[in-house]
Amino acid sequence: MSSIGNEEDITVTPVTPGRADISPESWAALLTPRLAQFVAVARHEHVTQAARGLAVPQSTLSRAMARLEEDLGVALLARHGRRVSLTPAGRAFARSVERALGEVERAAESVRTDADPAAGKVAFGFLHTMGPETVPELIREFREDHPRVRFALVQSYGEDMIERMRAGELDLCLTSPVPEAPDLVTRRLDEQRLHLVVPAGHRLAGRRRVRLAEAADEPFVTLEPGYGLRRLTEELCEKAGFRPRVAFEGEEPETLRGLVAAGLGVALLPPPTVARPGVVELSVTAPRAARQIGVAWLAGHPDTRPVADFKRFLLGRRGRLTSAPMAGPPGPGGPDRP
Is 314 in contact with 182 (CB distance < 8 Å)? Predict the structure, then answer.
C-alpha cells in the first residue's frame, strides 16, 4: 500500500446523482440522523477515531457516510486509506451543518431551561384591566414559593390571547368573558362588578347607584370591537332596553376613564384599584352588571412543571383573584334609586 501522502492514493468515492423522488421538504427528515456523525468525521478526519468518539462500530459509521453521500448525490469525503479529508463540497456542507446543529443545541437547552421545575418559564397572558395591580400581586405571591420561575407576560384582549395560545406563544391566560371552545379548558375564577363611570360634574354624579337605563341618552366611550368588555357593554345596554351610542373607542380602560373625566361620555368599566380624580364610579343595580374572569389553556397540551404549578396556584385563588376595588369618590349626595 502506498504512503498516505501520495496524491495517487487519494480517492473520491464516485457518487450517483441524488434521488429524484425526494422532495425538498423531506431532506431534513432524511439526513438529520447522519449529520452529527458527519460532523464528527469531518472534525477528526478519521473514521475510526470518529466512531470511537461516537461509540458506534467503525463499519456502521462508514456505511452511514456512504449513504449520506449517496442521498445527497455529492462526494463529501476523499478517502486516504483509513484517513479522510473533506472535499470542497464537504467543507461547505460541514460548516452549514455545524451551524444548524449549534442552533439545535441552543434550542434544546432553551426548552430544557424553560421546563426546569425550579427556574423554568411561564408564558402568561392577561387582560389590560388586570395589569396594574392584580397580575403583579399574583406573581409576587406565586414567587414566594417559586422564586426562580420566570414569566413572559402578554397584555391583550381575550380573542388575541386565545389565538396566541393556539399558536404556541402562551401557556395560559386570564380572560373575560370565559371562552367556550372544544380545544380549550377553562375554569371560572372570580366575578368582577362593573361600574357606570361618569364625569364628576355629571347629572348622575351625586348618586351612588343607578339603573343602566338612566344612561340611555348618554354618549358612551368603550373598548374597540373584539374586546370582551365591549361585547358585555353592548349586551348589558340591550338588557336595559337601548343600544349604546358610541362616541369614542379605545384599547385601554384607563384611557377611557380619562375621556370620561374630560366630559366626553360615560363608560361601563371594572372598578379601579386607585381612585381617579374627575370621575365618579356608580354601582349599577339593573341589569346586574358583572363580568366573569377565568383562566384558559389548550386541552391536551402537556404542561411543564412551572406551568402546572402556576396553574394550580391560580385555581387555588378562586373567589379572591381580583384586588379589592377602590371606587371613585361619590358626588355630594343625592337620592339613590333602586
Answer: no
> What are 213-246's pLDDT values in tens digits?
999 999 999 999 989 999 999 999 999 999 999 9
Q: What is the pTM of this model?
A: 0.65
Instruction: Count CB atoms within 10 A of the CB of residue 316.
Output: 9
CA distance 311 to 187: 10
Mutual angle of helices 47-54 and 27-44, in 10-degree steps: 110
Q: How many Å separate Cα 11 from the centre of its chain?
A: 53
Distances (CA, A) of 26 to 19, 65, 82, 326: 11, 18, 32, 60
Letter string b/e over residues 1-28, b meaning 16 or more CB atoms within 10 A of that residue's CB: eeeeeeeeeeeeeebeeeeeeeeeeeee
The secondary structure element, H or E, covering residue 295 is: strand 290-298
Cell numbers describing residue 335: 337620592
**Which residues are bridge partners to 197 per DSSP?**
267, 281
Where does 9-116 have alpha helices with state H?
A: 27-44, 47-54, 58-72, 88-114
Q: Is the dihedral of CA 23, 25, 30, 35 positive or negative?
A: positive
- In terms of DSSP bridges, do strands 195-199 and 267-269 run parallel, antiparallel, or are they unpaired? antiparallel
Give the strands of the sheet with 77-80, arranged side by side: 11-12, 77-80, 83-86
The sign one gets for the Cα dihedral 114, 117, 119, 123 is positive
Is residue 38 within 8 Å of 98, Cβ to Cβ? no
107 three-state secondary structure: helix
Amino acid at the residue 19: R
